Amino acid sequence: MSECTVTDGIPAGSVNGFVRQIAETNTEVSVGGAGSPGEEDVFSFTVPGGTLGPRGSLRFTQVGDLLNNTAGVMSVRWRVRIGAAQTVIYDATTPTYAQDPLRRAFLFRFMLVNRADNTVQIGGGQWGLSDFIVPTVGLGPFVNLSSTSTFGTPGLVSAIGAVDTSADWLFTVTAQLSANIALSDLRSQLAVLDGVFRG
User: Fold this and answer.
1) Is residue 44 classed exposed, middle or buried when 0-12, 13-18 and 19+ CB atoms within 10 A define those classes?
2) Considering its fold, how many domains does the chain have in total?
3) Which of 39, 66, 111, 140 could form a disulfide with 135 if both were Cys (CB 3.0 to 4.6 A apart)?
4) What is the pTM of this model?
5) What pLDDT is attached to residue 28?
6) Per-10-residue mean pLDDT, the chain, length 199
7) 73 domain residue, yes or no
């Protein structure tokens, strides 16, 4: 488990926390396609109680690829659910992307912050998709599909969460394709959950 010290710069150089990897999976998870039930988990992890503290935060990063070799456009609906009740605190759908016989890389990021209280959270997310071109390296360069490339704007911030993070709690990310038909799917290749811990 890796760890590094972080500062907030107020005052300059003050050390008040550290970053630690909480969970990682490089197991391929495929969702969508013919026969898909719709919304499907692409990542789920029980965060131990007290891991974050009242001012801590989670940073989730996921990379993988998409296939849309159907006759029409597709989109992906991302949801983040937390707690035993799996309350949805983030729900956003990407713009549509066109048919392409080649797989395209995707990137999804989400951040969840305790707001000076173990039971009050706010979160924001962002996604990207590789260019609609034949790649020269890997699956090609990313282009931003969200309305903005910045966390925390009105179009990206979710509803406020109210899960008690002082006890064990479940963090789940799901994906749902706009149509579940043959020659379309989303594959998660790597997902990492980091924590920023503050006193």
Assistant:
1) middle
2) 1
3) 140
4) 0.80
5) 82
6) 38 51 82 81 92 90 90 88 90 82 86 91 82 60 46 45 91 90 88 82
7) yes
Q: Return the pLDDT at 62.
A: 93
Query: Containing domain of residue 169, as a range?
Result: 19-198
126 class by beta-carbon count within 10 Å (0-12 exposed, 13-18 middle, 19+ buried): buried
Phi-psi category of residue 119: left, alpha or beta, with phi > 0 → left and psi -120 to 50 → alpha: alpha
Tell me the residue type at 83.
G
The CATH number of whichever domain residue 120 belongs to comes to: 2.60.120
Q: Specify if 120 maps to a domain.
A: yes
Beta bridge partners of 17: 6, 198
pLDDT for the residue 192: 93
Among residues 114, 138, 126, 143, which one has the least CA distance to residue 54?
Answer: 114
Inside any domain, residue 182: yes
Residue with tokens 């479940």: 170
Of 28, 29, 31, residue with least CA distance to 39: 31
Give the SS3 label for residue 36. Answer: coil
What pLDDT shows up at residue 173? 94
- The pLDDT value recorded for residue 29 is 84
DSSP-derived secondary structure letter, 70: S
What's the length of the chain? 199
- Assess if residue 12 is contained within a domain: no
